[in-house]
Amino acid sequence: MSTHTDRLHALRAQLFAQGLDGFVVPLTDEHMSEYVGAYAQRLAWLTGFGGSAGTAVVLADEAAIFTDGRYTTQVREQVSAADWAYVGVPESSVAAWLGEHAETGQRIGYDPWLHTRADVRALAAALADSGATLVAVDANPVDAIWTDRPAPSPARLTVQPDELAGLGTAAKRADIADWLTARGADAVVLSALDSIAWALNLRGADVDHTPVALSYAIVHADGTADLFVAREKLDDAVRQHLGNAVRVHEKTDFVANASNLAGKRVVADPERAVAAIFDALEAHGATVVPLRDPVVLAKALKNDAEIAGHRAAQVRDGAALTRFLRWVEIECPKGGQTELSAAAKLLEYRRATGALLDTSFATISATGAHGAIPHYHVTEGSNAPIERGQLFLIDSGGQYADGTTDVTRVMPIGDPTPEMRDRFTRVLKGHIALATATFPDGTLGGHLDAFARRPLWEAGLDYPHGTGHGIGAYLSVHEGPQRIAAPNYPGGAAMEPIRARMMLSNEPGYYKPGGYGIRIENLVLVESRDIPGADRPMLGFETLTLAPIERTMIDPALLTAPEVTWIDRYHARVAEIIGPRLVGEDRAWLEEKCSPLGS
What we know:
Blueprint: H1 4-17, E1 22-26, H2 42-47, E2 55-59, E3 63-67, H3 72-78, E4 85-88, H4 94-101, E5 107-110, H5 117-129, E6 133-136, H6 141-145, E7 158-159, H7 162-165, H8 169-182, E8 187-190, H9 193-200, E9 202-203, E10 216-220, E11 225-228, H10 236-242, E12 246-249, H11 254-257, E13 265-268, H12 275-283, E14 287-290, H13 295-300, H14 304-331, H15 339-351, E15 358-359, E16 364-367, E17 391-396, E18 398-400, E19 403-404, E20 407-412, H16 418-435, E21 439-440, H17 445-457, E22 468-470, E23 479-484, E24 503-506, E25 509-512, E26 516-519, E27 522-529, E28 538-543, H18 561-578, H19 584-593
Parallel strand pairs: 1-5, 3-4, 5-6, 8-13, 11-12, 13-14
Antiparallel strand pairs: 1-2, 2-3, 7-9, 8-10, 10-11, 15-18, 16-17, 17-20, 18-19, 21-28, 22-23, 24-27, 25-26, 27-28
Helix pairs in contact: 4-5, 14-15, 16-17
C-alpha cells in the first residue's frame, strides 16, 4: 500500500470483511490527546494530512476529511481531492455529514477507545435519523491494514523533582482525595496523560514534544493511587519516588482492574475519558460520576516554583531565539536557506543552551505563502526556499525541565511592502490591546478575544483561530482549561473563567492566502491588579516571553502614544534581561532592535 489511495481501498475492503459500511477515523489516542504517538497517527497514515486536528469518515463510495479554519489550505495541499471531500468545521460536523450521507440499514463503525461518550451520542443520534446504526468495534480496522504500524514508545519514566514541581506527589494526591471526599466520591480515573504526569510528578517520552508516558491512573479518596503503565518504563528511582502509596500495574490490566471499583462512586471526565472507560466502569458495577478531572484546574494554576521555572526557561529560550532572528536577518536574504534549514538552525541555538530536552511542538517554519497556513508543517516535500520579498514566520518552542515555551515572530526577507507593515502593525495593536487589558476576576476567556481582533476588524480583516491557549509546566504546549477564543473560531467559545496564576498565549495573526502570514505570540501570566477604588478583584497580564518584535515591520503612524510606550518598555525589558546572555555582535544587534521606536 504505497499510496494513500491504496490505503483507502484497503480500508474499504477491511470494513467489508468486518461487516461495516463505514468508519470514523479521528486524530487522537486512547487518552484523547491532542498530540499523539506515532502508533496512533491513523489519520495521517490513511490520508496524508499532517495537521494536529482532524477527522476522516470512510463510506463504501465516498469519504470526507474534516478540518477547521487553521488547515483549510494545508488539507488541500496534502490530501487528494480525488479521494476525499473537504469539509470545514464548525460549519459542519462529522455527525451532521454522516446524517446526510449514511443510508438506511448501514452500519457505521467507531473505536470506543478514540471517542468520548458525547461524540458517540451525537453520531448515534445523527445516524438514527437516517436509519443507520453506529457500531462499536473491538478491533480498529485501520490497525488491521497498517502492517508496519509503529509500536508504542518504550521510553523510561523520569521523576520531576519537587523543587521544580513546587509540590510533592503525596501532597497533590491528598488534595485530590479532599476533592473526592467533598463530592462523595471514592476514586477518580485520570486518563489524560498530562494529568497523570502532573499528579505523580513524573515525565515521559512517549509522545513527540510532550513529556508524558502512556498510562492510566486511579486516585482514591484515601490518597493512594494505582498507576497502570508498562513496567519496563520504571527504574529504581521512579519506584522509590512513587513509594508504597502508589501501586503499579501493567497498562494492559487497566480494564480488568475496574472490577475493584464495583459498588463505588468513581469520577471520570466526560471530555478526557473515552467511551470505553465509561463502559468498563459501568460493566464492573461502578457508579460513574461525570465530572472534570480535578487535576485540570490545579495544574493550570501555576505555583511559585512553576512560575519561577518558567521565567528561567524564557530567559534562555529568548536568548536562543534572538541569536536565530539575527541569523535570519543576515543569512536568509543571501539565498540558499530553506524552511528546513532555518528550523534546524533554531534547534541548534536552543540545543546550545545545554538545557533543551525537546521542542514543545513541531516547529512552524513558514516562508511566503506557507505562512498563510496557520499550522503549517514543513516536510521534505513541501520545503520551500526563503527568498527576498517574502515574510518568514517562525512559531516554535522548547521543552526545558523548568518550563515550556511557545513564541512566534515574523521577519521580512529584505524590505517589507506597505501592506505587510500595515497588517503586521494591526496584529501588533491587537496583541498590545490584549497584553494591557484589565478585567474582572472570573472573566471568561471568550470575552477577551475581541480585544485582539478589533484593529483588524476595523480594516475588514480577521484571523481563523483562537487568540490564546494555556501552557503547561514542562508539559503540554496546549493546556486547558483556559483559552481565549470566541464561539465562531476553532474549539468554540472559551467558557472557562480566567484566574490569577494561569498562563496563556497571546497570538493574534493575519493570513493572506497565497501571499504571507503574520502572527505575534508571547506567553502571559494572569496576575492580580490593584486598582484604587475598585469594587471587585481585577486581573491583568504580565508578558513572560522575551524576544524582540521586528521593528522594520512596524508602521508607527498607525500606533497610539500608549502603544508606542508599551513597545518601548517591552523592548527595554528584553534588552535588560536577555542582553547579558548574549555577547559581541549578537548583543549589539539586540540593543539596536530594542532601541525606542522614535530613535
